[in-house]
Amino acid sequence: MARFRLINCEFVNASSFKNNISNKAQLLYLKMITSADDYGFVDSTKELINSLTSNEKEFNNTISLDLLENSYNSALDDLIDKGLVYEFVDNHKNKVHLIRHWFYHNKYGKGMWTNYKNFMEQVYLEKNEYLLGKKPLKENKTKETKPNQYNTNETNINELLEKVEPTDDIDEEEVDKLLNEFKER
User: How many Cβ atoms are within 10 Å of 93's Cβ, its own excluded?
Assistant: First the structure.
């Protein structure tokens, strides 16, 4: 896992980020970025919340620990509700979080690693953003083509015979011979 993490200033300074979530949610989001693996998975969110809670309790003795912990838990809920973080539950009922816009902040690189390949199967990446579900198939934008005039499954052989005309290079007998060979296939 990389030791350095990047934070996209445009993303965290955007009014949609600053004005739509609480300060505690913003702080938790930034702490999650620093604790994520190479693909943006965070399995230590509970420890981050406990750390933030105890630090705040230490500097402000008048607020109860339970109230602070609920405050940061609601900040996590806010991040999930606003679609900034996805939550997964592993086989042992542990919660793992994925930072949806991970690749807005950090880049792909060699040697990237995660423990959560099973959760990677539940998301796909589009324009540097994780989205839940399977990647939709792209619409088939093929040109409209006429049926293959030489495909006997699509065209009646009699219609083919009517369309064939002798040319100056090939005489009528040659055309008949080619048509008979075609019919035998």
Answer: 6
Full-model pTM? 0.67
Residue 170: Cβ within 10 Å count: 13
Q: Please name the residues in contact with 73: beta carbons below 8 A apart, sequence gap of 6 or more.
A: 49
Dist CA 67 CA 73 (whole Å): 10
Residues of the chain with pLDDT under 50: 152, 154
Buried b or exposed e, range 46-67, using 16+ CB within 10 angstroms: bebbeebbeebbeeeeeeeeee
Q: Give the residues across from 86 on adjacent strands.
A: 98
* Angle in degrees, 0-180, between the axes of helices 65-81 and 45-59, rounded to the nearest 10: 140
Residue 77: both structure tokens together: 């809920």
Q: Where are the domains of the chain?
A: 9-132, 146-185
Residue 41: helix, strand or coil by DSSP? strand
Contact of 149 with 160, CB cutoff 8 Å? yes
In this prediction, residue 166 carries a pLDDT of 55
74 by DSSP, 3-state: which? helix
Q: What are the Cα distances from residue 127, in Å, to 103, 119, 135?
A: 9, 19, 12
